[in-house]
Amino acid sequence: MLRTFLFSDIVSSTAILNRLKATLGDYEGEARYLENIRAPHNARLEACFERSGGEVFYSAGDSYGVAFRDARRAVECAVECQRSIAAPAIPVPLAEGAVPSHVQIKIGLHTAEAARVTTAGKPDYSGGVVNLAHRIQECAHGEQILASENTWDRVGAMEQIQPHQWRDCVVKDFGRRTLVEVLWSEREPQRPRAPVEVPNSTPEPPTRVDLERVRSDYLGRLVAAHEWLDFAGIPQVRNVVRLKLEDVFVPLSATRELPEGDVLREHLAPRAAKGEAGDAGDAEARLAEREAAEWRITLEDALKEPLLVVLGEPGSGKTTILKHVALKLAKGLGSELGLGVAEDVAPLPILFPVSAYAVALRAGDRALSDYLADHFAVHEQPGLAPLFADALARGRAIVLLDGLDEVLDAGERVHVVRRVQEFVRRFATAGAQEGAPARGNRFVVTSRIVGYATARLADFAHVTVLPFGEDEIAFPNDFAYPAVSIPPRIDCMMAPPRSRCRSRSEATSSASSLATSLTRLARFRARPASMTYA
Question: In this structure, are residues 162 and 153 in contact, taking their beta carbons and an 8 Å threshold?
């Protein structure tokens, strides 16, 4: 189907956020950014998208990807977005130097045929044409709109809008293109940025120094993406609270036993209350508990398996486990998980959703190894192909594939599993050396229990995440006060004043009440923390 794709992003958003953090501290700086920058920016753009009939298929932080049936409507929406952000201006707190004084956005547009799919109930589009629209946006300056010739040829004359054609522009991954600048204000035309130079000959392979620089940037972005958890969805939590994943992560409690069909044997789950199994002298109950204990396994023990599948019920914490592993490795703490005793042998974490690969396969069959870097490029991390190729070839990668069950079509899931198995066979033993047990790539896949048997991964060890018992559920004390008290200068994130606690003791009491309520929820017993953060 023919669609026009619009991508937008805030200019210098990382510099703005880093400036606020450096001045105010991590928590307060990020809170100010969310309140003063992201909230008004997102509200204005989303209103424009809705009025223009655009379909938002991608949103991450300050970035959006929107699809339109009509190219002219897409360009009109881009102009409206720029005008909405420009007036009234959104001032940037503590701006100086390279940090702009007010929020600016850049927009790129491209029109082409693309396959529309639905992933986890949300619209998505696949194919290189979507990436081209994103790359065009990267070429834009602040307050600039750039469109491909494909888009502008379908627009025609527009009142008070003038086009300016820029020939021979460098677009990363797509070579030289002619781009059309949509002049929506009095500003003078400005030649698009050139992210990379087009080489006249075969480029030199990256040096070890180049790769280490890319690795450092990649791991820094990974930490930024997964270090903090946003708590939402609980009425008693009156503020938008961000806590570090490491502060609330609960170690894995799992069993080596596979579910019988689509359910886990009941006796392997912790008892909801001590008296549930009957008399303490009940021999059968004691035998069941001993058997359950024998089958239990820790996260560190599970990760000793080079090929591992983690199964669990919805909300059991499977994705959180992968984020925890990736975060530890990104911070150089892999030894805490038994994954390398020195930075030289610590594996590179590569975490991504399996469903995204399934969407890419619909546009054309391709190896998983060829897809990895493209996935991160769409999510604003281009240029990772050499890093991933080096890590996989040297046996220094741990590939974390999240959500096999989110590939909903059974036939499609079988095809994805086949491709994953090919990828594993190719790279599982790469770089393995005698006497170097930390070498050799590792692979961890997560899936819900239901439906996994229809497309099972061969040669993988399997563990199943166990639910919590009441005695294992504890509401973190450090969460109590920020969750129900008043943080400084975050008024837009707070509930009405009379509903807030003004002391730590009052907050702790409210938190205790909240924990009691949560433990009564059957679904919360599965893994409570996963019910409260996004």
Answer: no
Average pLDDT over residues 329-351: 78
The residues near 51 (Cβ < 8 Å, ≥ 6 apart) are 77, 80
Question: In degrees, to the nearest 5, what angle opens at C-alpha 225 toward C-alphas 224 and 230?
Answer: 105
Cα gap 469→269, rounded to integer Å: 8
Specify the pairing of strand 162-171 against strand 55-60.
unpaired
Q: How far apart are CA 264 and CA 267, in angstroms?
A: 9
From-to residues of CATH 3.40.50 in the chain: 298-465
DSSP conformational letter for 450: T
Residue given tokens 């109950």 in the structure block = 285
User: Can you spell out the DSSP letters for 275-299?
Assistant: GGGS-TT-HHHHHHHHHHHHHEE-H
Start-end of CATH 3.30.70.1230 domains in the chain: 2-201
Return the CATH superfamily for domain 2-201.
Nucleotide cyclase, GGDEF domain (3.30.70.1230)
Distances (CA, A) of 520 to 434, 507, 513: 52, 20, 11
- CA-CA distance, 22 to 423, in Å (whole number)? 42
The pairing of beta strand 63-68 with beta strand 2-10: antiparallel
User: Of the CATH numbers 3.40.50, 2.40.50, 3.30.1890, 1.10.10, which one belongs to the domain with range 298-465?
Assistant: 3.40.50
Q: Backbone phi, then psi, for 161, in 5-degree steps?
A: -125, 125
Give the dihedral sign, CA 44/83/92/132.
Answer: positive
Tokens of 512: 């205790």
Put simply, whether the predicted model's pTM sits higher than 0.90 gets the answer no
Contact between 483 and 509 (Cβ < 8 Å): no
Q: Which three-class secondary structure state does DSSP give residue 227?
A: coil
Residues 6+ apart with CB under 8 A from 457: 307, 309, 404, 417, 420, 421, 445
How many Cβ atoms from other residues are within 10 Å of residue 57's Cβ?
20
Helix, strand, coil percentages in the chain from 3-state DSSP, rounded to 5: 45, 20, 35
Q: Which amino acid is at 375?
A: H
The 10s digit of each residue's pLDDT in 106-158 is 999 999 988 888 766 788 886 667 889 999 999 999 999 999 999 999 998 88
Chain segment 431-468, per-residue pLDDT in tens: 655 444 445 899 999 999 888 888 899 889 998 888 76
